[in-house]
Each structure stands twice: as C-alpha cells, then as structure tokens.
Amino acid sequence: MIAIPEKDINKLKELIVQAKKPLILTHYNPDGDAIGSALAFYHYLIKKGKEPMVVTPNDYPEFLHWMPGNDKVVVYKRNNGTVLNALKDADVIFALDFNDPDRTNGLEKYLKEASGIKVLIDHHPDPSNFADLMFSYTNYSSTAELVYHIIESLKDTELIDSVIGECLYTGIMTDTGSFNYNSSNPYTYYVVSKLIELGINKDKIYWNIYDNYSEDRMRLLGYCLFKKMEIFPEYHTALISISKKELKDFNFAPGDSEGFVNYPLSIKGIRFTAIFIENDKNVKISFRSKGEFPTNKFAEEHFNGGGHKNASGGYSYSSLEDTLDNFRKLLPNYKSLLNDSL
Ligand code: 5GP
Ligand code: MN
User: Around ion ligand 2, which residues have CB less than 5 A away?
Assistant: First the structure.
C-alpha cells in the first residue's frame, strides 16, 4: 500500500493530541463499514485519552448492535438537541465513510457551519471540498481498512486491540461482501491477518452480521426473488422493486433489505442489478454491477446519487412505477456498454 503523506499524518497526530471535544460522524443509513470504522476510531481515541462522541444521522440495523461501543452511539434522529450542540462545540469533527455532507441527510447544514476542524477519512471517489484535512483514498476496500493504515502510520499499531480489531474486521468484511468484491488488494489481507493475530473471532462476527435475520426478512427475500424480480437478458440486467405496502406486509425493519440487490448478480449473465424501495418521501435505489459497468456514473446521471463503480445508490422523487419505467427505458442506451462490461 502506498504510504499516506507524512505531512497529513503529522497534522492528524497534532489534531488528536490537541482535541478536547472530538466528534465522529457517519453517513445516513450507516452500514457495517460506517459503524465499524467509526467505533474503531472511537476506541482508538479513547486509548489516546480522549472522550469522543460518535454520531449517526439515523438508526441502523440490529445486526450491527452487538458491536463494542454501540451503546455510546448518539443517533441524531432521536437526539436532535444533543447532536446539534455537540456539533457546534466539537473542536475536531471526523467524517467517516462518506465523501459529501449531503450523505448525512439533514445534518449537512450543521456540518458545514460547524467551526471545528473537519477531517475526512473515506474511500469513496470524488469527495467534495468540505474538510480541512482529507484522507480520501479509493484504493482501500473499506474505510475500516484505511483507519487501520492511518493508525499504523501514526505508529500506534500496538494500541489496536481485539475490540478495535472486531470493529475494523466488520467494516472490511461487510464492504467486500465477505471478500467477494473490492478485495483484490494484498493489503486488505495483511490487515486481516493482523486482526486475526489479535484473537478476533471472525466466524462469530460473520454469524452476528449475516446469520441474525428475522423470519420476516427471510420471507420478504423469498417474495422479492419469486414475485418482484424482473430480468432483462438483452441488457444483462435485473431489478427488484418493493412498495410501501409490501414493506408493511412483511413487518419491514431497517436493514431487512440489506443485500437483496446482490442476489440477481448470481444469475448467469447478469451484470447489473438495481433495487427500488418505496418510502414516504421518495424511492431509494441501490445499484450493483460486476465488471466494468460504472453504476456510480449511472446513479449520478439519472438518480441523484453516486458511490463506487460496482456499488452505488441514489433516489427518485417520482412514483415507484414511474421510476421503474424510467429505469427500463434507460437500459437500451447502455446496451453496448452492458454487453462489453465483463
Ligand atoms: P447501498 O446500496 O448499500 O445503500 O450503498 C452502496 C454505496 O452506494 C454506498 O457505499 C455509497 O457509496 C453509495 N450510495 C448509496 N446511496 C447513495 C446516494 O444516495 N448518494 C450517493 N452519492 N451515494 C450513495
Ligand atoms: Mn465503506
């Protein structure tokens, strides 16, 4: 792995030493990497003698609640006043696993206005220019892996214990789909080997994350694959859609649809998948691809979104049906790209 510039590391070192009220912030709908990297950094700062606050914009799935430090996370949606005051008071704000204040859905304005020094630690492409110090690198599997490299570069590797290790491993495992994608860099396995040396139980982490679903979630998945999946063989594409009513019928809980978007990629010939989930305000969309098809550009151009090449997301403010129609109509424009994308 290419070294992180020494001047940035020195600046970060100084910031950490001086920080009186550090705050760690993740993106909206935080995933395993957002929570994993944020809590790992939280435990690291505690070891440096700090008392950081970890903030998420909204709640996150129950399968992440086992993580060490989960009880310390302050959810903005349920603690508006506390979080806004903390953002105002913070002297250093660490933005983890997101590249644009937009991704905090609702905290954007307060983050931009906050007077604290902003440090971005993230692996998404094209960060917007809101941070004073940026650790923005796309060649890491996950923000968690980048956090490991940062702590290593700060010469604090010996502070990484199994608690920090569990958090970091969770981020790496979830952002690579258990080493399925974004995981071809040897450094990822170097970090994993170091974490396993610390005695983390990787199997237990896998069970906690992936074998912890409700019956409702399993039945919703079955229903989606049986009834709600559309295949477009000509375009090597598949979609799944879920309406508000269907979510209600299956007692939908946050996180229940996690991973659904990946299933159609297991069908022979499918290289591009999308899932459309209706909510009160809009239709939330996730995109995935195999190979060269840039889902982030597609999300950016048509669905107010972005992300990584093979995993991205966006929104539509039309009805679910209109959104699906719009998507179906776009496919012919991408026919040759989708045909050549493997
Ligand atoms: P997911 O589909 O799991 O929600 O998100 C996958 C990836 O897509 C995330 O890591 C994030 O980079 C990106 N992403 C998801 N939704 C959005 C969005 O609305 N806007 C942008 N810019 N990126 C998104
Ligand atoms: Mn991530």
Answer: 33, 97, 142-143, 175
